[in-house]
Write a structure and sequence with these properties.
The chain has 126 residues and is mainly beta. It has one domain. It is built from one helix and ten strands; from the N terminus they run αββββββββββ. It has a six-stranded mixed sheet, with no helix packed on it. Strand 7 and strand 8 form a beta hairpin. It is globular.
Length: 126
């Protein structure tokens, strides 16, 4: 590939979510099937069956083409409570973004954009 052809290529970036301690997230496909569960590495291991989904321990997750929505949960006392959800929206340039955030009372959504992608974080105000 020539230098000119490489210069014409556009790098697309997908949005990501940075998880806090006690949080885990579920990525669902467009047809509603749970595809991936991402659990913060400092959490105790998740209990229960996640049939058909891959379980990954990581502090950050990136949405991909084909994802339909993401749900962020907080774990307290052995119970998972939904704190935020967002819809995955494909972009014209091939990237994927998170939009239409629904955040439960007592939590805040923060987004930091850099290099064409946005990192989202759900926090509990002090």
């Amino acid at each position: 590939m020539s230098k000119a052809a490489r210069a014409d290529r556009v790098t697309t970036r997908n949005d990501s979510i940075s998880l806090c301690r006690d949080q885990h997230a579920g990525l669902y496909t467009r047809d509603g099937a749970l595809r991936l569960v991402v659990d913060h590495p400092s959490n105790a291991p998740l209990l229960g069956a996640h049939t058909g989904a891959v379980l990954v321990r990581a502090a950050e997750l990136t949405v991909e083409t084909g994802d339909g929505c993401v749900v962020v949960y907080v774990s307290r006392g052995g119970t998972a409570c939904r704190v935020a959800a967002a819809r995955v929206l494909p972009q014209k340039g091939g990237g994927v973004s998170l939009t239409d955030w629904q955040v439960e009372a007592g939590f805040e959504h923060a987004a930091i954009s850099e290099d064409g992608a946005t990192t989202h974080r759900i926090t509990r105000p002090a």
